[in-house]
Amino acid sequence: MIYSEWGVFLSEFCTMIFYERAVEVQMVNFYRSLSEKDRRRYAAVEAGKLGHGGVTYVAALFGCDPETIRHGADDLQQLPQDAAAGRIRKKGGPQES
């Protein structure tokens, strides 16, 4: 078994390229500085760059649900129109129904 620097199990037969630890740290720090909407979009961009297996890797790296990344990919397909423009939920605040 192979584990990444973040403790994520990686298949021995995986051919996908992973980022170096220093780059992962920068990516995670940047991810944490973003709004919720921008986090899922950034995660989708990174997963898309990696190709097959990218969603699993990025979800584990950022500690988010793979479905969040898929939602971010859907968001990106709709740009430059942004139905959520200007709506950013405060961190830790209650979700609006």
Describe this structure in words.
The chain has one domain. It has four helices and two strands. α2 runs antiparallel to α3, α2 packs across α4 and α3 packs across α4. The longest helix has 15 residues.
* Unreliable sequence segments: 1-7
Q: Class by helix and strand content?
A: mainly alpha
Largest sheet: 2 strands, antiparallel
Discrete helix count: 4
Task: Kindly report the average pLDDT value.
Answer: 80
What is the strand content?
under 5%
Strand-and-helix sequence, N→C? Answer: EEHHHH
Distance from N terminus to C terminus (CA atoms, Å) equals 43 Å
Radius of gyration: 15 Å
Principal-axis shape? globular
Beta strand count: 2
Strand order of the largest sheet: 1-2
**Overall domain count:** 1
Instruction: Estimate percent helicity.
Output: 40-55%
Describe this protein with a few key phrases.
97 residues, mainly alpha, 52% helix, 4% strand, globular, disordered N terminus
Task: Provide a short characterization of the protein structure.
By secondary structure, this protein is mainly alpha-helical. The chain is 52% helix and 4% strand. The protein is built from 4 helices and 2 strands, in the order ββαααα.
